[in-house]
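Before relying on records like the one below, remember that each one covers exactly one chain. Contacts with other chains, cofactors or solvent are not represented anywhere in the record.
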Amino acid sequence: MMKKAEIVGLNKPLRIVQVDIPATPKKGAIVKVAYSGVCHSDIHQWDDCIDLGNTKIGLSDAIGYKLPVVPGHEISGTVYSIGEEADAAAGLKVGDRVAVYPWIGCSKCGVCTHGKSECCKERQLTIIGVGASSGGHSTHVAVTEVQFVVKLPDSIPLDLACMLPCSGLTTYNAVTSVLDTVEKATLYHGKASVLIIGAGGLGLWSLRLAQALFPPTTEITVADISEEKLKVAKDRGCHDTVFWDRSLSAADLHKATISKGNKGGFDAIMDFVNSQVTAERAFRCLKPYGLHVMVGLFGGAATFPLPMLTLGARQIKGVYVGSLQQFNELIDLVSKNKLDPPPLNYFKLNDVTKAFTLLKEGKINGRGLIKHDDKASL
């Protein structure tokens, strides 16, 4: 038997139920979950809402989405069973320590067969923990193909590993997306300036990855509305911080932010909030030839002076998780560089509603994890 946490209604307490462990997929595996990360995407499911600015959409509108659902797409654990037709080339055996790549597609379309399953148009039916396919806030999870069950090196603990499939991978994609811009700014000006918006779990991950990948002269500033979270970012080695005090005017906040940049702004900006306020402020702080990467899903709509895109050759790019290849690259990077995670906050499966509530209220510094134990597996 196994236990799982189900979303049963809008902002209602998650229901803990006991059920049979699912049958092992023929080409896949069952993973016994050790840790599952609590992500803002879980909150979007719990709220059943994404704000598009002039309208809002519910995740329940997607094909195949039907309550109750088991959220949780950041998953690590051990291999519990392997399907009889699983690809032996994966090299998995029962008991192996693994992380699960949840961004699974249909496996048949062009993007899937070229290693971009996270972009599959049918993914709402197959992504683990986001709707139709049960996720990791449970003691066991089924994975349809073993290629998405990635063996971990001994140097990566399971609590750190569970964050790599989403918060780690998304920030790795963001950091590598701006890497070329940062390197060119360093070549042209001797150093680059980078702004990270948001000092939560993703912002802190991006800081650590940027420190590992950017030229050592790069000056990284972190902005947030929480002085407590900015202190954590400063303690983790960012060059500077800027407190976005909501009692100040937009003009004063712009002046305070742009002063932290190099010669009138930032060469690259990664926005892990991505609201109207943060997006518009980021664009105004972006230097000519700079790159503004949008990552967060806070929601809303933003307005930019369009000629400034052309006249300054500025770029805006959206980043959505990452590919299976990037996931394997990230695991190698974290292992070789012994990168440490953001501060971790542990919750029991029975306390998953508390974890969701604290994250929604912005009261988790770093990342929240559901820690499963043997007693949860009956």
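Confidence is low (pLDDT under 50) at residues 374-378.
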